[in-house]
Amino acid sequence: MKEIISLTKLFINESLGFSLFFYNQKFNKKEFYKQLFTLIIVPVALIPAFFMYVSLMSATYFGLTLINQTSVFLSIGYIMATVLIIVFGVMYILSEFYFSDNIEELIPLPISQRKLIIAKFLSILVFEYIFAAFILIPILIIYGVGQGMGLLYGLLSFLVFLTVPVLPLSLMTAVIMLIMQSASLKGRKDMLQIVFVFIGIAVIFTVQIWFTSQLGSGDEADFQLLMNTILTNNEGLLNSIGYLMPTSFLMAWALNKITLMSLGWVATLLGITLLSCALMVTVGNRVYLKSIVSGKIIKKGKPLSGAQRSKVLGKKSHGAMAIFTMDLRLLLRTPVYFFNNVSVVIIAPLCILLSVSFIEIPPEDLQGMQEFFRAMPILINFLLIAFFIFFGGTSATTASTFSREGKASWLTRMIPVTARDQIVGRTGVAMFIQSLGIVFTIIAVQFIFPLPLSTLVITIVLGILGSLPILLFGLFLDMNRPLLNWDNPQKAIKNNMNVVITLFVGMAYTGLLIGISGLLGYFVNPILGYGVFALISAILSVVFYQVISRRLEAEFLNFEGN
Amino acid sequence: MLILEHISKTYGNKNEKAVDDVSFEVHPGEIFGFVGPNGAGKTTTIKMIVSLLAPNSGKIRINGIDNQTDILGAKKQFSYVPDNPELFEKIKGIEYLKFMADVYQVPASDRQERIERYLDIFEIKNAVNDPIGSFSHGMKQKLALVGALIHDPQVFILDEPMVGLDPKASFELKKIMREHCDRGRSVFFSTHVLDVAEKICDRIAIIKKGKLIEVGTMAEIREKAGSQESLENIFLELTE
Ligand SMILES: Nc1ncnc2c1ncn2[C@@H]1O[C@H](COP(=O)(O)OP(=O)(O)O)[C@@H](O)[C@H]1O
Ligand SMILES: [Mg+2]
Asked: Mean per-residue pLDDT for B171-192?
């Protein structure tokens, strides 16, 4: 037990970078204050959002009392929390169990696999409890106060709260471990493993959604009929939503009304939770370390013949192309980088496709939508532009471009490559990935309704042009303060302030620019809107480009030792 | 070929100079050894030459080009192999070599011929299709050497090159250094292994605590020290 706790502490410490924080407190004051500042400013910045959330939930509760459906209130919160936990959980599980390097140091030590798994799981759980608390506790309190609940409700809802992150997270961990195991068994390495995980999870969700949709609409459930049952039966809404997450029924039965049965339902929930933990540990014990060890074996290529070598070497490439290829290869071949910077351009369009195939839009509504957009193309154009900028600018690929090279960055700085080629090559990689996202999105959207050619041209051109200043801004930041001294590639992104700043500044900037040019385009003249958007993007890009190309070679001298 | 004038460098602590007013010159056709104990400032000096660090003061000219006013031009004149060459682990050996040939704009026929030759010499031909992450330390060093020789640099700069190489590779490297100089180019390398410097260098510089204490041929340094001792003993006396 002691061992598990100290391991858990170690993992938490590692993922938060506390040791560096305290090291900086002693030896690097400037860096320390910067970290302290972000540590304080991020929660403070979230306070308004939290208040908005609480008032929204109070309003929802009030609305539900009006239609006599308060019984669904807790389930809504439960399902929201579970979905969020799963979404963030996939990332946490992959990075803690599979991308973190500490496992290499831990395998040789006499620690049982079971303890490792439990400790890693607990270290993820801590973060998930924080998420769950922000979402669920306001809901539990609103409901408790609204229904005039007593002490027993408080106690039972606390117990239920404890189970909320554990259940989905442990099942998710077991599933991911199984997928990673089968991926590594087939000799699939690196990014293919990650693709496997996504596909596996997508399949599970698809099956689950399909299953519930079968349950829900036994026979062509008429909308009127559904509304009737909802309005006459005060658990109608609960029944139709609960299918999404079967355990939410247990929670609702336990807490909606406190009776003697509540104790039984809470006990059942606790039991199921413990069972799923046991399942995860059992599965993990069989596959986890095995797949880690086989995953660490680097697959070698076949020796090349002289002819093959000269075929590779014979082609001369431009400096910018050489930088582009190197940067792209590193991005695609390092799982964490692929996961953070590339996967979103596959997942987001996939989500559009999935939602389209499950939500059936009646043809007349679709027609209406199409007419609406035909009448006001500027709305959908800017919406798409925002989406495309999200692929390019806000994934912050350029903001870690030097950091990702880590200790090998001496090579980048030593070779005689012009600043222009560096900028073009590195920005090119971000744009290439963005273009993939754009193409996939357009294909997915095509299924809802075909976009006119003018929309395609405008959104592609402005989407790419609009993200250019953000890309260059990220490059500028990473040129000034790269994070090179890491031993685990994850740190180049996760501990990198350049990425965080580019993300936030990029989003704020995009919102502002699209807001202004959208309003101009809508109220004055579409051409003016697009024009202003293009002009501002172009000017900022030129300015950033000039600054970077003038400073880059000199900045390379400052990457270490100051 | 390589000229340093009054180079100084401090890291964090401004009172402690890692390199203190260092000046010397490496002539064409010369193997020049940079000798000193651990922490003397060899790596720091080399990093300033190869544009990885900015000196606090002083000038460096490589093949006549000032590496502070024309960084890019200076970079084309040398190639550099660090003491511990960290390379991109996910990249294959051959991809790395192609990258180096591309960024130095080596003509297609030259690059193939040189790469084939050096891969043979260092016996890593069969490994070039593997990711660098699977290379041993010595293999990485050999790959970095091949990469550095692709563009046939005017000045070949190496930091502690013999550490980590097997005896055969280290023998071959010395041969390559000599050939390089025979074609009128220069080799500049640092070492704390003294008999290496003694055997293969035309001239050496001795650095201690950031200060240059001797520059010259072996004979000149012996003469100054007034003895027929080996460099080892002179060095121990000088750096005491
Ligand atoms: N990045 C750095 N930050 C602070 N001090 C450094 C750094 N690199 C080297 N030093 C210091 O500079 C001095 C010279 O180091 P170095 O040039 O690496 O010596 P050598 O290569 O001769 O062994 C040493 O005292 C070392 O501690
Ligand atoms: Mg050194």
From this structure: 94
Report the gap between the CA of B133 and the closest CA in chain A (Å): 7
Give per-residue pLDDT as tens, B222-233: 777 766 666 667
Non-local CB neighbours of B83 within 8 Å, separated by 6+ positions:
B43, B159, B160, B163, B190
Pick the residue from chain B with its C-alpha nearest to A300.
Answer: B130
A408 vs B90: CB contact, 8 Å cut-off? no
Among the listed residues A412, A360, A337, A394, the one whose alpha carbon sits nearest the alpha carbon of residue A216? A360
How near does any CA of chain B get to the CA of A425, in Å? 12
> What 8-state DSSP symbol labels residue B159?
E
What is the pTM (predicted TM-score) of this model? 0.80
Question: Hey, where are the domains in chain A?
Answer: 2-295, 319-561
The answer to whether B52 contacts A413, with C-beta atoms less than 8 Å apart, is yes
Residues with CB under 6 A from ligand 1: A 560-561; B 11-12, 18, 36, 38-44
First and final C-alpha spacing in chain A = 44
Q: What is the pLDDT of residue A181?
A: 79
For A84-95, write each residue's pLDDT tens digit. Answer: 787 778 878 887
Span(s) in chain B for CATH 3.40.50.300: 1-77+155-166+185-240
Alpha helices in chain B (DSSP H): 42-49, 71-75, 93-103, 108-122, 137-149, 167-182, 194-200, 218-225, 231-238
Query: Using CA positions, which residue lies closest to atom 5 of ligand 1?
Result: B11
Q: Which ligand is nearest to the CA of B47?
A: 1
The pLDDT of residue A258 is 81
Tell how far the Cα of B17 is from the centroid of ligand 1, in angstroms: 10
* Fold for the domain defined by B1-77+155-166+185-240: Rossmann fold (3.40.50)
Q: Are residues B112 and A309, on separate chains, in Cβ contact within 8 Å?
A: yes
**CA of B41, closest atom in ligand 1:** 17
Question: What is the distance between the alpha carbons of residues A75 and A261, in angstroms, rounded to a whole number?
Answer: 18
pLDDT value for B30: 94
What ipTM was predicted for this assembly?
0.93
Instruction: Identify which of B53, B99, B100 has the shortest CB distance to residue A560.
Output: B53
Predicted local confidence at residue A562, as pLDDT: 43
Q: Which residues have C-beta within 8 Å of that of residue B62, sequence separation ≥ 6?
A: B1, B2, B49, B74, B77, B78, B154, B155
Segments in chain A below pLDDT 70: 17-20, 27, 183-245, 295-297, 351, 354-366, 369, 373, 394, 561-562
